[in-house]
């Protein structure tokens, strides 16, 4: 996720990748975290919450970073500081009952700040306050999604083995990739 200053936020599930690669766990430091690479090239580990971070998304104004995890019950929100660091972690949107995996994966956001989360049951949509607004059901569990098209009013959804496009009234944030 690229911010307005040219920095990049990304997640890394080191332990999971190590297990799949067949490499010895001692050859890779097992730190599952969210990282920020500033435009200067400096890389910072900005949070290790939630465990096994996966999907990541910035609010339209770039002041809040959302992070999800397939094993978590909530999407976590953070305030973005001037240097790219994160503060004030909080549960933002409830995906499932506490203690139950929500199955979250990729995320997208529209220009009004509504958050779209690929999760168990389909694309879950949340208001800017984190209230559930509805679900776009999918026959196969969604993995990722993005607003695209000439007017950014098409939501593309990718699953394991299928891709869908949904015409939307809502419009994705203009001027950035996702």
Summary of the model, kept short:
With 178 residues, the chain is mostly beta strands.
Account of the protein in words:
This protein is mainly beta. It has one domain (8-167): 6 Propeller (Neuraminidase), CATH 2.120.10. The protein is built from 1 helix and 14 strands. It has one helix at residues 14-21; strands at residues 8-12, 33-37, 43-47, 56-58, 64-67, 74-80, 86-94, 107-109, 115-119, 122-126, 132-136, 142-148, 154-159, 163-167. The radius of gyration is 16 Å and the shape is globular.
Number of DSSP E strands: 14
The sequence of SSEs as H and E is EHEEEEEEEEEEEEE
Helix coverage percent of residues? Answer: under 10%
Question: What is the CA-CA span between the terminal residues?
Answer: 7 Å
| CATH architectural name | 6 Propeller
Characterize the overall form: globular
- Round the Cα radius of gyration to an integer and report it: 16 Å
Instruction: Average the pLDDT over all residues and give the rounded result.
Output: 90
Number of helices: 1
Q: What portion of residues belong to β-strands?
A: 35-45%
Low-confidence segments = none
CATH topology: Neuraminidase
Total individual domains: 1
> How many strands, what sense, and barrel or not for the largest sheet?
4 strands, antiparallel
The side-by-side strand order for the widest beta sheet comes to 4-5-6-7
> What's the CATH H-level superfamily name?
TolB, C-terminal domain
Structural class: mainly beta
**CATH level 1 class label:** Mainly Beta
């Amino acid at each position: 996720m690229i911010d307005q200053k040219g920095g990049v936020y990304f997640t890394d599930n080191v332990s999971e990748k190590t297990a799949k690669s067949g490499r010895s766990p001692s050859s890779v430091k097992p730190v599952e975290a969210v990282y920020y690479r500033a435009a200067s090239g400096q890389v910072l580990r900005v949070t290790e919450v939630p465990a096994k971070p996966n999907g990541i998304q910035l609010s339209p104004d770039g002041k809040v970073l959302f992070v999800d995890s397939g094993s978590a019950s909530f999407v976590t929100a953070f305030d973005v500081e001037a240097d790219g660091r994160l503060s004030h972690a909080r549960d933002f949107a409830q995906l499932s009952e506490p203690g139950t995996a929500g199955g979250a994966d990729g995320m997208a956001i529209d220009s009004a700040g509504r958050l779209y989360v690929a999760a168990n049951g389909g694309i879950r949509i949340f208001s800017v306050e984190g209230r559930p607004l509805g679900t776009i059901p999918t026959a196969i569990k969604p993995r990722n999604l993005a607003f695209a098209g000439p007017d950014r009013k098409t939501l593309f959804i990718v699953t394991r083995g299928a891709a869908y496009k949904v015409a939307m009234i809502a419009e994705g944030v203009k001027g950035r990739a996702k």
